[in-house]
């Protein structure tokens, strides 16, 4: 039998609702912090045994239904020939931003088995450690979010430089989207070949766009990436409630919902033929258990036991989150959904 998450992503009937958490591996876990005292982020991500260990830590601790690979949305960019610094408290910093057609042309589309060999080997290690009902989630950053870092050179909230280029230099923009789609599509497909059962496209800043701009400037690239995966896909963006119909048209067997829209309303925009993932506010986990349980129960009530729901947060686990609360939440969802619901 295939993993629970894979079957749910296909909207097949399942024994209970699968649960995993974005950013479940990493800073909220003391065992991860212990590893980081000795190794940099990129050392962990690019050493198969360390990457696999960090990926498996939350599975062992929380008993979740999936292991999401420990990587960064900028990982494939390294294979394209750019240097990226992950600056503490800032985020990805690109010393030489991509802003001209010549900059785009210098980017290469690498052979994934060679360029991303450490991650692919880590996936194989993780697959060998999981129970049959647990899945590996591979992922990559969405084209708008990654383009934002490449063009701005660092994180931005306004995306003024990105949008200025998008509107005034559409040839450069579309050439960049073409390069990112080619690289990211092969990157996701390689993860699936290595053993990932589900692939997520994580476009965390796409909510900065209007629906019309999303359709014109981003949707074709996202559609190409999702179509290349070769496994059930999850298409996720934050602040993207107004984009849900367009994101659904672009693709994804499951559409990820953030916490800004009630799950049942989001599902209505997505359509009953697709699954949805989400969508508890990560900050709720910083509060008392009674509030966490009530909010989680509300999400489950809105899902109403329909096939295709994957329980998750509406974004990643916050670093301050008590790991005990995450474990308790996973157990609550698993126990609350094991019986058939009306």
- Shape call: globular
Tell me which oligomeric state these chains represent. Answer: single chain
Helix content: 40-55%
Say what the CATH topology is: TIM Barrel
- Which regions contain 5 or more consecutive residues with pLDDT less than 50? none
Question: Structural class, judged by helices and strands?
Answer: alpha/beta
The largest sheet is: 7 strands, parallel
How many structurally independent domains?
Answer: 1
Main sheet strand line-up: 1-4-5-6-7-8-9
Count of individual beta strands: 9
C-alpha Rg (nearest Å): 19 Å
Distance between the termini: 25 Å
Mean pLDDT: 96
Number of helices: 17
The SSE string, one letter per element, is: HHHHEHEEHHHEHHHEHHEHEHEHEH
Under the CATH scheme, which class?
Answer: Alpha Beta
CATH architectural grouping: Alpha-Beta Barrel
Give a written overview of the molecule.
- This protein is about 50% helix and about 15% strand.
- It is of the alpha/beta class and about 350 residues long.
- The chain has a single domain (about 5-335), classed as TIM Barrel (Alpha-Beta Barrel).
- The strands form two sheets. Strands 1-4-5-6-7-8-9 form a seven-stranded parallel sheet.
- The longest helix is centred in the middle third of the chain and has 25 residues, at about 170-195.
